[in-house]
Write a structure and sequence with these properties.
Elements: E1 2-3, E2 6-7, E3 9-14, H1 19-22, H2 25-34, E4 37-42, H3 47-59, E5 63-67, H4 81-89, E6 94-103, H5 111-128, E7 132-137, H6 140-149, E8 155-157, H7 164-172, E9 176-179, H8 189-196, E10 202-204, H9 226-237, H10 241-256
Parallel strand pairs: 3-4, 4-5, 5-6, 6-7, 7-8, 8-9, 9-10
Antiparallel strand pairs: 1-2
Length: 260
């Protein structure tokens, strides 16, 4: 499963509409392909960025989109936001609802508003039989409560940064988790979580333009960097990068129902 001696990988969470990436998007997509990135999911965080994600997915064959409202933006969501998301989700290249969730670290939206907007999107994802792409920061208990009340048919907690207990609770509900360049930043929860779960339990993502992995930490992140994440995970789990690539790619294609 190689292309020019590179492993085929999928970046399951990217924000390609940020200006630093959008201004050079042809080159970004080209570099991703050269690095073995087979497919990219461009994730919306509000109605406007969801529309931008769809426009980008329309332009590039290997890019797919999501439509959702991030917890930071929950306070600004119009009352009819769920209906707008429903319309956007009808596009053939929309493969998930999100990014949705809870963020009690910054609390840029009131927690009660975050909760309502999150639950509405969980319900919409299930109604449309689409995966839920979920954000969680410093909100483990509230997140698990919501997920137990409205369990996604398919769901992923992205940029996973919680502990082993939370990871196992999420997985027991039938969800996946995904890892970013933070796995390359040194010892953290990611290492213990990765050692405690199976290769089939998670996917890979860059969360670009944020969280560039070592050796590019502090620079603009892009999908082509995902091989560094895969390599570090292979080292942590004591397996070949080929195994990480094959398993996470298969998981992502099945989860998002992407063309093989």
């Amino acid at each position: 499963m190689k292309i020019a001696n590179r492993q085929l990988l999928i970046d399951t969470h990217a924000h390609l509409y940020y200006s630093d990436l959008k201004s050079q998007l042809d080159d970004v997509i080209s570099r991703a392909g050269e690095a073995g990135v087979e497919q990219i999911i461009c994730v919306g965080t509000d109605l406007d960025s969801s529309r931008e994600s769809i426009a980008i997915a329309e332009k590039y064959l290997n890019v797919f989109a999501t439509a959702g409202v991030h917890p930071h933006d929950a306070k600004d969501a119009p009352t009819h936001f769920a209906e707008e998301l429903r319309k956007l989700a009808g596009h053939e290249k929309v493969v998930a609802i999100g990014e949705m969730g809870l963020d009690f670290f910054r609390n840029l939206s009131p927690p009660d508003v975050q909760s309502v907007v999150f639950r509405q999107q969980l319900e919409l994802a299930n109604e449309l039989n689409l995966p839920a792409v979920i954000h969680n920061r410093e909100a483990d208990e509230a997140l698990l409560t919501a997920l137990r009340e409205i369990t996604p048919k398919r769901g992923v907690v992205h940029c996973f940064s919680s502990n082993v207990e939370t990871a196992k609770a999420v997985l027991e509900l039938g969800l996946k988790i995904s890892f970013t360049g933070t796995v390359t930043f040194g010892k953290n929860h990611n290492e213990s979580v990765l050692k405690a779960i199976d290769l089939g339990d998670f996917m890979l993502e860059t969360d670009c333009p944020f969280l560039a992995p070592v050796p590019n930490r502090g620079k603009l992140n892009e999908p082509g960097n995902i091989s560094h994440i895969a390599q570090r995970i292979a080292e942590i789990k004591g397996v070949l990068i080929k195994e990480v690539a094959e398993k996470t790619t298969r998981t992502a294609q099945q989860f998002f129902r992407l063309p093989a």
